[in-house]
Amino acid sequence: MALSSSESGVGTPGAGAAGIESPSGPRPTRGLLPLLLAGNTAMYALYVGVPGLLLALQIEDIDPANKVANFGLISGVSAIFATIFNPVAGALSDRSGRRNPWILAGGLLAIPVMFLLGSVDTILLVLIAWCLGQAVMNVYQAAITSVVPDRVPLAARGKASAAVGLGLPIGSTIGALVGAAFSENYRTGYLVFGVIVAATAVLFTTCAREERMPAKAPLPVKQQLAAFGSALKDHDFRWAFIGRALLILGYFAVAGFQLYILKDHTDLPAGLSPEEAVAILMPLNSVAMVVSTVLGGWLSDRYDRRKLFVGASAALAAVALLIPAFSSSWTAMLAFSAVNGLGFGCYMAVDTALVTMVLPKAEDAARDMGVLNVANAGPQIVAPFIASLIVSLSGGYTALFLIAAVLSVLGAIAVRPIRSVR
Question: Which pLDDT tens digit goes with each residue over 202-241?
Fold first, then answer.
């Protein structure tokens, strides 16, 4: 999974780069927004419940002494695999001119792959199986991400983006609850997540009919590399890119190890298991994220101060990370989860708006937003490796929280040099 800051620019034949619809552009599809919400919710439920709970438990069962290093290795390698496979899957669906068959194929294949993942019992086989899981889920993700630019008119893109965005907090909550419910039997839990994605894929492709889009040739690799370098030469866009990369790196360095943090760092109340604690923290974090996303976006619009809200929310995320660094209590983790959700939700909402205002060229908007997604995906790749190294060398999680807080502060500072936005 790679956290995305916008709908993919892949397969957008109905709109020009400047946002002008062509006569053959996307047309409204009745009932599409609830289906997009369901489709993205199922995807994020698996993305949170599997690596956040079930995979961590499975790795601990196989090799308890080296669980942190093994989890960091598997998370990092699978993230690399996902980042590479996602654009490949998107290009394949572009060439076919259709999304539904890819959504359906990825969704249905989730069942056998999740069954395989639950059946293996060595670290190497877990790595291979989870990479296969990332492959089928990225087929699903690349196709469903392209539905908005394909089928939603420009006037309804805001509502569609909200439907897609709500899939993250709702899916995260469902993933945490389902994962916790099957913590004692993670093999069955894997299958449940596979069934959820498969059933949603069938529902989506049955109810959301599509018309074949014109096939689109993939952009040559040399042109993609040239585009990446060109966008980062722009002063404001470069600083927005750096700020996003730093914040994401700090966030995912901690988020990926949440279960182990609860097991090995937090003093939980008597009778509360780490898995049950995740099922409490994730909904709390999601509610805070939804609230701050809505309020942050609205307030930044009202006062026209994007940099202020981006910097303040990144600083708030840093403050949140300091709470469990100085206290291992359950109350501290509750406070961390709530404050971190407030900071991260506001940051992602307002920073995405800020980025759209510093894009180098309107005609290259989709391309440059794709460049920005490197600042989302890249840190998610290296975060597990860095986090496991920090924990192994320091012998605990306090140093991880402190370093993540420093990265968030640097992310807040990085928006200050931006000139064209207040």
Answer: 999 999 877 776 655 656 666 666 666 777 888 888 898 8
pLDDT value for 19: 39
Q: Which two tokens stand for residue 147?
A: 């539905």
Q: For residues 142 and 302, give the distance between their C-alpha atoms in angstroms, rounded to a whole number.
A: 34
- Percentage, residues of the chain above pLDDT 70: 85
Please state, rounded to an integer, the average pLDDT across all residues of the chain: 83
Residue 271 CA to residue 38 CA, distance in Å, equals 34
Q: Residue 240 and residue 415: Cα distance in Å, rounded? A: 6
Q: What is the DSSP letter of 65?
A: G
Query: Is the model's pLDDT at 154 over the cut of 80?
Result: no
* Residues 332 and 384 placed together within one structural domain of the fold: yes
Q: Over the range 400-413, which residues count as b (16 or more CB within 10 Å of their CB) and which as e?
A: bbbbbbebbbbbbb
Using one digit for the tens of pLDDT, what is the confidence trace for 107-132? 999 999 999 999 999 999 999 999 99
What are the structure tokens assigned to 148, written together?
Answer: 């908005």
How many domains is the chain partitioned into structurally?
2
Tell me the CATH number at 113.
1.20.1250.20
- Domain membership of residue 305 as a residue range: 219-422
Q: Residues 37, 288, 352, 248: what is their CA dihedral angle, to the nearest 10 degrees?
A: -110
Residues 268 and 130 placed together within one structural domain of the fold: no
**Which tokens belong to 274?**
């780490």
Largest CA distance in the chain: 64
User: Is 351:311 a contact under the CB 8 Å cutoff?
Assistant: no
Cβ atoms < 10 Å from Cβ of 155: 9
> Which pair of tokens denotes residue 396?
């605990």
Residue 13 lies in a domain: no
